[in-house]
Amino acid sequence: MPGDDQGYAPEQPIAFSHRLHAGELEMDCLYCHYGARWSRHAGVPPAELCMNCHQSVTASLDAVAEERARAEEEGREPQTVVSPDLARLYGYLGLDENRKPVPGAEPQPVPWVRVHDLPDFVWFDHRPHVRRGIQCQQCHGPVEGMERMQQWSDLSMGWCLDCHRSNPAVPGHSLEGLDPRERSLASVPTDCSTCHL
Ligand code: HEC
Ligand code: HEC
Ligand code: HEC
Ligand code: HEC
Ligand code: HEC
Prior knowledge:
Blueprint (H helix, E strand, L loop, with lengths): L17 H7 L4 H4 L2 H4 L8 H8 L6 H13 L10 H9 L33 H6 L4 H5 L16 H9 L14 H7 L5 H4 L2
Bound molecules: heme C (5 copies).
The site of one heme C (HEC) has 15 residues, from helix 9 and helix 11.
C-alpha cells in the first residue's frame, strides 16, 4: 500500500554506513548526493566516487592496526587488509583486491536497493526544497546516525501538505507580518496540480 513503507530498510549489496561517512567522518550529504541541488533526483553516487578514498582505504582503520600489530608480533611485513564489503565494491568496478583490473571483467553499477519510491502519479522535485534551505534531515530524519538507510517519513500526501500549508515550518520563512504580495511570493503552493501533473 502507498504510504506504508515508513521504516523500510532493505539490506544493501554493500553494507554502506551513513553513520560512519556522514556522521563520524562528517562528509557533506551533497558530496555524494550532488544531484539534490541541480536536478529533480538527489541520485546515488557512482562507485568511482567511492574510490576517491577507497583506492587507498581498503578496510577499517581498526582492522589495519590489528594486522600491523599481528605482523610485528610475528616478525613479518604487514599485509594489505581488504574488508569483505570493500572487496565487493572493487568487484563491481571490475577490480581485484589490489585494485588492478580483472582481465575480461566489465565494471557494473552497484545494484543498490531503492529505499524511497513515491507512486508515479506524484511529482516531487528536490531542487525547490533544497534551494529553499530545507535540511535533508527534515524529510529524511537523522541520516548521520543510520547504520543502514531507512525511510524515515511516511511520504503520504498529508505529510507533504502539512509542510506546504504550514510554510513557517521552513526556518526563516514565517508568513507573519508580510503584506499580501510578499505573502504570495513566500507561500508554498497547495493546489492539486503542484504534485499531480
Ligand atoms: C560517501 C557518500 C555518501 C554520503 C556522504 C551520503 N550518502 Fe546518502 N547514500 C549513499 C549511498 C551509496 C546510498 C545508497 C545505499 C544506501 O541506501 O545506503 C545512499 C542512500 C541515501 C538515501 C536513500 C536513497 C533511496 O534509495 O531512497 C538517502 C535519503 C540519503 N542517502 C540521504 C543522505 C543524507 C541526508 C546525507 C547527509 C546526512 C547522505 N545521504 C550522505 C552515499 C552517501
Ligand atoms: C522536502 C522533503 C525532502 C528534502 C528536503 C530532501 N528530500 Fe530526498 N527525497 C524526498 C522524497 C519525497 C523522496 C522520494 C522521491 C521519489 O520517490 O520520487 C526523496 C528521495 C531521495 C533519494 C533517493 C531518490 C532520488 O531522488 O535520487 C535520495 C538519495 C535523497 N532523497 C537524498 C536527499 C538529500 C541528500 C537531501 C538534502 C540535500 C534531500 N534528499 C532532501 C524528500 C526530501
Ligand atoms: C572521503 C573519503 C571516503 C569516501 C568518499 C567513501 N568512504 Fe567509505 N570509508 C572511508 C573511511 C576512512 C573508512 C574507514 C573508517 C574506519 O576506520 O572504520 C570507510 C569505510 C567504509 C566501509 C566499511 C569497511 C569495513 O568493512 O570495515 C565501507 C563498506 C565503505 N566505506 C563503503 C563506501 C562506499 C560504497 C562509498 C561510496 C558511495 C564510500 N565508502 C566513500 C572513507 C570514505
Ligand atoms: C518540510 C517541508 C516540506 C515538505 C515535507 C514537502 N515540501 Fe514541497 N515545498 C516546500 C516548500 C517550502 C516549497 C517552496 C519552495 C520554493 O519554491 O521556494 C515546496 C515546493 C514544492 C514544489 C514546487 C512547487 C512549485 O511549483 O514551485 C513541489 C512540486 C513540491 N513541493 C512537492 C512536494 C511533495 C510531492 C512532497 C511530499 C512527497 C513535498 N513537496 C513535501 C516544503 C515542503
Ligand atoms: C504537496 C503535494 C500534494 C498535493 C498538493 C496534493 N497531493 Fe495528492 N498525493 C500526494 C502524494 C505524495 C500522494 C501519494 C500518497 C501515498 O503514497 O500514500 C498523493 C496521493 C493522492 C491520491 C491517491 C489516493 C491516496 O490517498 O493515496 C489522490 C486521489 C490524490 N492524491 C488527490 C489529490 C487532490 C484531489 C489534490 C488537490 C486537492 C491533491 N492530491 C494535492 C501529494 C500531493
